[in-house]
Structure formats: structure tokens, C-alpha cells
Amino acid sequence: MTKLVIFDLDGTLLDTLSDLTDSVNYAMTKLDLPTYSSEQVRMMIGNGVSVLMARAVTESRRELQPQALALQREYYNAHTDEHTKPYDGVKEMLSDLIARGFTLAVHSNKDENCARELCDKYFGGLITYVCGTTDYAVTKPNPIKIVDLMNNLGVNRNDAVYCGDSDVDIATACNADIACVSVTWGFRSAEFLREHGASHIADTPRQLIDIIDDIMRLV
């Protein structure tokens, strides 16, 4: 029986904040709009780049949102991983989970082509399935891609765990009716995650493995 661990990408497996900040500020500069610090961008991330750029441009300049999104994508597609890197211990964690018999997947609100490229570069051979945002624009917390993946693999909801760093990930897991482990090394704090309903919180990749083991023993 397949047991599935599904990961968010940005802020969970990969530290992409610097590259995302640069892409946002490229668009803002081109449009002669105020730029943002990495900490400000950190709190805008989580619902996909369309929402990210809408938050950056703000409602008061809504007419510029499509142009800002196009500029951000243009820059980010050319500079996807200049500063991006896996968080410490993540690759070892993935290898350990595979050794324990888990199948690994990524479900991200990042454009799917970028998500696949990054997973291939940093986690080649470790991540079996990658789902991201496509032209259909279905994004988390809509769980349909997770549900479809589980159905295609014949995975029962009790045999799947979702791991992410944001409130969007918690809502996604809830909507898919599967367990969720929230991580604190990404873009949101433990306090924020608890306020948004986190029931399992991991401070390190090693601790995440232990929590997944505990969850699977209880089902």
C-alpha cells in the first residue's frame, strides 16, 4: 500500500525568498512603484504569484496588476535559482522518508514548469510527482490536485500527509481531509501557524520525520 508525503515547495523544501523578492522588486521598479524588503515579501507569499503581485501592487493600482505579474514572471523565469537553496537537512530528510517506504510529491502554487525545474535540480530522484499552477490556474487551498494524485495512486486519506509552512498549506490539507505537519523554518512563525490551526509543528527536518512516523502509527 502506497504511503504518500506531499510537500509544499517554497518555504518548506527550498528557501526561495531572495529570488522571489528580487522578482517582485524588478516588476515594481519597472512600473515606478515602491519596492519591498524580503520580510515584507515573505508575508505576501503563499497563494501563488498572481495573488503575490496583486498584494504588491495593492488594490489602489489594480489596473497595473496584469503588467506587474507579467514582469515578475519574466524576471523570475530567467532568475529562478540565483539565490535559492534547500534548507539544511531537507535532502537527508527526503532520503530518509524514501528509505522508510514513503512516496514523495510536491504540490506548490508556483508555476508548474518552475516547480519541476527546481525539484529536478535540487531533488532529482527523490520527488516522484510535482504539481504546480498551470494555465487552469487552480491553486491551493483548492485540494483537487492532491485528491486526483491520491486517487490515481490508490492512496487512502489516512496514508497521506501534507507538509508546509503556511496557513494556506493547513487549509489545503484540511480541504483534502488529510493530516498536516507545519514547519517553522520557512516563511511563517510557529505562533502564526498555531493561530491558523496547526495541529502538528516541526522545528527541524528530523522532527518532521518523527511526527510523520507518529501520525502513521495512529491510523
Indicate the structural class: alpha/beta
Order of helices and strands: EEHHHHEHEHEHEHEHEH
Q: Largest beta sheet: what is the strand line-up?
A: 5-4-1-6-7-8
Query: What's the mean pLDDT score?
Result: 95
Silhouette: globular
Beta-strand percent range: 15-25%
Q: How much helix is in the residues?
A: 40-55%
Separation of the first and last Cα atoms: 13 Å
Please report the number of helical segments.
Answer: 10
- Radius of gyration (CA) equals 17 Å
Poorly predicted tracts of residues: none
Q: Kindly state the number of beta strands.
A: 8
Question: Tell me about the biggest sheet?
Answer: 6 strands, parallel
Which helices and strands appear, and what pairs or packs with what?
Layout: E1 3-7, E2 14-15, H1 17-30, H2 38-42, H3 49-57, H4 65-78, E3 85-86, H5 90-99, E4 102-111, H6 112-123, E5 129-133, H7 144-153, E6 160-164, H8 167-176, E7 179-183, H9 190-195, E8 201-202, H10 205-218
Helix pairs in contact: 1-4, 3-4, 5-10
